[in-house]
Design brief:
3-stranded antiparallel beta sheet; 2 domains; Arc Repressor Mutant, subunit A; about 190 residues; mainly alpha
Length: about 190
């Protein structure tokens, strides 16, 4: 028996319990989401719709200093206090201070990227913290508290981090440089 549906392109059909059970089994076997698709499959009708392109959120290109500058500022929080834990707020404060330090030419990272500094610095630091954690440099086993991994950075590497701070003066970036490009990989 066939009933007209309120939807213009649909028709309801009635089947016995035995046929419904068989149709349900077929639906599970083929991974179909609906009885309509299962019946179409049995009849050899292709009901697949072309996949729509997934729309991704608007990707805002990073408009601040290279990741190595921020990673350096974060890691140097532990330079003289390797055993001391740091809070997110403390790390952000230290990074802000580093971004405000003037270089011999009078520029600061904050002056080169003023909008980024005001609008995106904290979010970007959060992302860099996660990146440094994934690379084995820091950890946050306690919520909201960060610590440097024991012996994560050797003395020559601290020298290199200091040089990065001193020598890479504020400028608009053309090349992205990551801390893992400078320091040896962590196991």
């Amino acid at each position: 028996m066939v009933d007209k549906s309120k939807e213009k392109d649909r028709t309801h059909i009635r089947v016995t319990q035995e046929i419904k059970a068989t149709l349900d089994k077929h639906q599970k076997a083929i991974g179909s989401k609906s009885a309509n698709d299962s019946i179409a499959n049995l009849l050899g009708i292709d009901t697949s719709k072309p996949k729509a392109k997934k729309t991704r959120g608007v990707y805002n290109e990073h408009s601040g200093p290279s990741p190595v500058i921020i990673d350096n500022a974060i890691l140097r929080c532990w330079e003289y206090e390797a055993t001391k834990d740091k809070t997110r707020a403390g790390i952000i404060t230290a990074v802000k201070e580093r971004m405000q330090r003037p270089y011999p030419n009078g520029t600061t990272w904050m002056s080169v990227y003023p909008r980024w500094y005001k609008e995106s610095l904290e979010t970007y630091v959060d992302g860099r913290l996660q990146s440094l954690k994934a690379k084995g440099f820091i950890d946050n086993s306690k919520t909201g508290v960060w610590s440097i991994v024991s012996n994560a950075i050797e003395s020559e590497e601290w020298d290199l981090l200091r040089k990065v701070s001193e020598r890479i003066q504020p400028h608009k970036q053309k090349v992205t440089l990551n801390i893992s490009d400078l320091l040896s990989t962590r196991e």
